[in-house]
Input
Amino acid sequence: MRESTIIRIHYATALASVAFVALHVMIRVTQGFADSLEFENVVANYQFLPYAGILEVILVLLSIHGFNGLRVVLLEIRQGRMYERGVTVACIVMMVAVIAYGSRTIFAMNMGAF
Amino acid sequence: MAGVPSSKTTTRLKIKRSNPAAGGAESYSEFDVDTEAWTTVLDAILAAKNYGDHSVGVRYSCRQATCGSCGMMINGKPRLACFTKISELDGGTVTVEPMKNFPIVRDLVVGFDRLFRSHHRIKPYIISDEADIEEGVRENRQTPEELEKYIQFAGCIKCGLCNSACPTMATDSQFAGPQSLAQVYRYVADTRDKGKDERLKIIDDSHGIWRCHYAGSCSKVCPKGVDPAMGIQLLKGHMLGFR
Ligand code: SF4
Output
């Protein structure tokens, strides 16, 4: 993939993250912060489909943005074809793993695992 | 007869010495040099070389900020030695060191292979089938507005000061560098040139234009008034399709 395409994705995920995190914060403000982390509230949030959808989108956006950012930082620290390939593959694997693990939690909660 | 006022003073000149080919031990040689208000750092280095130690390694040529040969760190900042007057600097001691982000050949002389390779790679010439001058046909003409878009970038003398000031150059050994990226913009912005796609492709890799974080230090040190940081940002606009 061309670097300019990756950067477009990087910028787009940053902008979209700002919008979705703002939405998430607005929802939390209306619900009252103090009780946000009460177990029942957390479970209820995950079981409310539109809100669970927002969390899933934030998870995907921030994972893509964050791991690409990490890749860029690591590529600037050291160079070399093997190193570069290793960093790219490792970042993609970590990104997929974080999205899979986070999504599993969101879906399991949404489908009434608790 | 009235005495002629003199601005003569003595300046201590500290020159960083090293010779990587002979082991690489670093040291500083110190010289006391007579200087006037108009004495440049290059004049002082040459005085030290002529009357103190002939073995001081320094590269220079035109002595008028045109050839770009005498770039070095002067009191910690990348500058041209021929274009920096001692009277403009703070303090009584002037410390000169080889440019950062370049391999040292000896003392103040650094290797330009990487800069020239990057510059060559971006095809620093007009690419156009219409560029040949034919008998009876006028050369490509440009309006003053068209010229304005790239003329400052055409003033680059390849001195390397911008690359020396760039923080990305310090860590990324494959980064194209502000000098060559600014030259890409110079040709992309030139209405006579048809090589835009070719050049943008060259700098669109993992050590190309996107590794510039817009620190802006390149533009601060350029002795020719080129603004590489601006060129790079305008180029990013081209690459993202905004221009
Ligand atoms: S852009 Fe300026 S500082 Fe950089 S190489 Fe050209 S003249 Fe030197």
Remarks:
- The pocket of iron/sulfur cluster is lined by residues B 68, 156-162, 179, 182, 222, 224, 226, 228 (CB under 6 Å).
- Helices of chain A lie at 3-31, 39-47, 49-77, 81-110.
- The radius of gyration of chain A is 17 Å.
- Residues 81-110 of chain A form the longest helix (30 residues).
